[in-house]
Amino acid sequence: MSADSVQSKVAQAILSALIAAKDAGVINCQLPEQIILDRPKNRDHGDYATSVALTLAKVANQQPRVIAEAIVKTLTDNNLLNDAGIAKVEIAGPGFINITLGSASQGSVVIEVLTAGKKYGQSSLLSGKKINLEFVSANPTGPIHLGHTRWAAVGDSLGRVLAAAGAQVSREFYVNDRGNQMDLFGQSIRAAALGIDRPENGYHGEYIIDLANEITKSNPEFLTLPPEQSDVAFREAGYKLQLDQQRMVLDNFGTHFDTWFSERSLYEDNFFNHTLDKLKANGHVYEEEGATWLRTTDFGDDKDRVMIKSDGSFAYFASDSAYYISKRERGFNLCIYMLGADHHGYVGRIKAIAACAGDDPEKDIEALIGQMVKIIEGGQELKLSKRAGTIITLEELVEKVGIDAARYTLIRYPTDTPMVMDVDLLKKNTNDNPVYYVQYAHARICAVLRNAKDFGIEYGVNSYNPELLVHEQERELIGFLAQYPRIVASAAQMRQPHRVARFIEDLAAQYHRFYNDCRVLPLGEEKPTQLNSARATLSLAAAQVISNGLELLGVSAPERM
């Protein structure tokens, strides 16, 4: 929300009234730093409402209506109403304060939107936060499949939302490029190249044959190497090809990473030993039965974790620990881990690592769990099984429904709940298809504005008279536009980009209601009026907000459909 927005002015006026009332001895309690304004569902209750009087009543030991009356009186006596563009203020129920804006003040929201343009909705809410946002992080042993795809969309959108709220965000993909799975990957490719049985617990998808053929075509000598050397050669070549393919698929999906972080790098240049020394210095490392342990039970973990096994090899937990230390030493003051549905147990362990490193796990780490996605096509669920080879990949999903429909649908649901994607629905150009509905609203407005130009209607900030917009649907649409910065801020604070998707759906619905009730374009031989100009300008602002919202989702805003 911009510092000089209408909503900010109203909130500041109420806060000023509270301060004046406290100075006068009418209110005796600690005042809030900011005033929360809500949009009443019943439009008869005004443009904004606040329950601040009810909230303060508990700490002030006063009746909420007494506080509300003090706020209203001070607003009136101190001429704060005019300054904030407030036409009417009323007390309702036990102490709610309902606020109605004057037409000019209400309509000035449109000027805010058009002046800010693509920056409308941005804020400095998270300024100073340097966030490491890690998501997808698929093993480089197979295609990006549906389990990763939800985070590929949501993670990218969350990064956009956090940046819009002023945070410095680095999107990171953690490449699990060491350990037993990588060895099985190499053995599986070699076996496919030789035409022999692959390891039972190896990889059996068709893509393994494709990799084997591509590698042997360029490197036929790999087939004649001794088995162990051949396994390594196929592993490394397959790793490079598969990682390149993952990058390409994600880039095509509109999901770009600032850093592709190799797990192997944690064991280069003495970094793991540096990590171990740091954890030892904090007193949480011990030796037992020839192994090196981290005492994570000191911080709520259900058992201590092995870092170096008795045979001298590194446990996976060693990488987890070093990776966290790496993030912090690269200057990130918040590390967000976006994890799959089967990683609940990982959360406590990673928070314990942070505590063992001397950090505050409740402040420095956040873990978001994404639930599973089902795809329905023709009324049947398409099953997933990465190792058996019957997998739905990100590429296949995009082929079925397109990038915009895939991204929008994956983002528009809370990630902590399972979701179902109906392929048949997403192929339909109907209002039942949410992404089509929102994109169509944007395209419709663009068509209206093209027609307005044909009529010779001037629109934009310099041709706009906000006092003309007094119709209920006009005021309702303007009210939606005013709410957008708050929606973006809440999406960032709650780490819930789906709030943006749901908001622009509601905004699209309101634009359609406005368009049906308020003629934007002249009829027949009518001459264009200033009202046509004002409504066209309001339409332009609506298109800008829909476009801004779609941009935060990584979805296009077409001008024609």
Helix content: 40-55%
Continuous helix count: 20
Helix/strand-derived category reads alpha/beta
Describe the largest sheet. Answer: 5 strands, parallel
The residue ranges in which pLDDT falls below 50 over 5 or more consecutive positions are none
Strand order of the largest sheet: 6-5-4-10-11
CA(first)-CA(last) distance: 32 Å
Mean pLDDT: 92
- Report the principal-axis shape: flat
Q: What is the CA-atom radius of gyration, in angstroms?
A: 29 Å
* % residues in beta strands: 5-15%
Number of E-type strands: 14
Short description:
With about 550 residues, the protein is of the alpha/beta class.
Structure description:
The protein has 561 residues and is an alpha/beta fold. Helix content is 51%, strand content 12%. The chain has helices at residues 6-23, 52-60, 64-77, 80-84, 103-116, 146-164, 180-194, 206-218, 227-252, 271-281, 316-329, 344-356, 361-364, 394-401, 403-411, 423-426, 434-454, 472-494, 498-517, 530-553; strands at 48-50, 86-92, 96-101, 130-134, 168-175, 259-262, 285-288, 291-294, 305-308, 334-340, 365-370, 373-377, 380-382, 419-422. Strands 6-5-4-10-11 form a 5-stranded parallel beta sheet, sandwiched between helices. It has a 3-stranded antiparallel beta sheet with strand order 1-3-2. A hairpin with a 3-residue loop joins strand 2 (86-92) and strand 3. Helix 5 (103-116) packs across helix 20 and helix 14 (394-401) crosses helix 15 (403-411). The chain starts with 5 loop residues before the first helix and ends in an 8-residue tail after the last helix.
